[in-house]
Amino acid sequence: MQASLPETFLWGGAVAAHQLEGGWDQGGKGPSVVDVLTGGAHGVLRRITDGVQPGEYYPNHQAIDFYHHYKEDVALLAEMGFKCFRTSIAWTRIFPRGDEAEPNEAGLKFYDDLFDELLKYGIEPVITLSHFEMPYHLAKTGEGWLKREVVDHFVRFAQVVIRRYQHKVRYWMTFNEINNQMNTDSDLFGWVCSGVRFSQQADARQAMYQAVHHQFVASAQVVRFAHELNPDLQVGCMCAFTPFYPYSCHPDDIMLAQQAMRDRYFFTDVMVRGAYPSYALRDWARRGFDIEMAEEDAAILAAGKVDYIGFSYYMSSTVQAGEAKSIAGSQDGSSPYSVANPHIRSSDWGWSIDPVGLRYALASLYERYQVPLFIVENGFGAVDKPAEDGRVHDDYRIDYLRAHIQEMIKAVTLDGVDLMGYTPWGCIDLVSFTTGEYKKRYGFIYVDRHDDGSGTGARSRKDSFHWYQQVIASNGQQL
Ligand code: BGP
After folding, report:
1. What beta strand segments (E) does 40-160 contain?
2. InterPro entries recorded for this chain (predicted)?
3. DSSP at 39
4. Is the ipTM of this complex over 0.85?
5. pTM score, two decimals?
């Protein structure tokens, strides 16, 4: 068993185009599903508006203006010693409406320049093709991925960018947190994952599986295309992995936790194994769901198995058999049976802090699938206040990350997990996805931008910046 992380380990950080780029209508970019999401607030989810409306506040339109500041920002990432940088390509920079025949050259050029800048410092780009960035034009009816033709639009987009960047980008992922849309109680997740408004569907759950089926088919086609184009390319899936623990040793709690885990495994089961699992097919039959599939779909899924599993880990959830509650609007990975875990405390946003759960997640996923894993999001959202010396002393963030990295190293060195890398979320402060706030910060780099519109946009190094620099330099030995 190896004693430490491999020398090739991809240390870095993660962001998504829409949460940091800004420039939402520049360089020919069209509006995406997040461009019509208003700002939310602590505990209040964001609203979807009917197109971009005057007088509404849309935090993603400006974000931290990475679109114009990427050179300065990449230099800071390089100073931390990043080996890789995970971001997404905004689909609407390349195909502003989503259904054009030809791509927008100005959008393609932006990512060429960004990738060149990263590669100049030896930073490997890790690219998500769709991180909640579907073109608004394809989603405005509220049906989005329910429409089969979206498969072709997405595959065309993916083929254009994979062909263009194949010598600059080796690691790809298809859909960010594809499983978030399992939460059909809220319109927010269906909207950003699939452009579907669940509240307008007769049976939200059936609609969700239909939209997801189309995404599975699209993802598999993209994997196959990439492999045929260039065997060096690796394409992964990306799921939010929040493990469920049983509240007690009561057999009903154990069984409930096992059943709840199927909502986690369903997506990886299909994308890693290339076929629908028997428990899902039974469940659909029992509920009378009729998911439309084309004749060739089974063969497409089987031929497009992903190379690795990318996943986000923020927290665990604990379930107890009993009365189900509604969980509308929850992004904390909970189930209707979730209860507080007395052994685990939570962040200001109610997300449980459970480093051991990361080792549990890694070991569980690896034992089930035996494919390489990549932790592509993990982190601590907190309110950062610069101290009198003007600096952010974020020891709470360092504590969170240190504890998670320790468990991650155990998973590799003790459990034998094949782990490609670790990219903490929001390595530079950006717009929070669920709340639309700047206030919920994750970064090693502070950005002077605030929810009331104030701030210079200036970047500065938090204490965690220097700490992470030393973690990377020592390959995880100095924590
Ligand atoms: C994940 C998303 C990210 C990100 C993160 C943190 O679900 O992939 O886009 O934002 O969660 O969530 P939040 O910003 O709501 O704290």
Report:
1. 84-88, 124-130
2. GH, GH_1_N_CS, Glyco_hydro_1, Glyco_hydro_1_AS
3. P
4. yes
5. 0.97
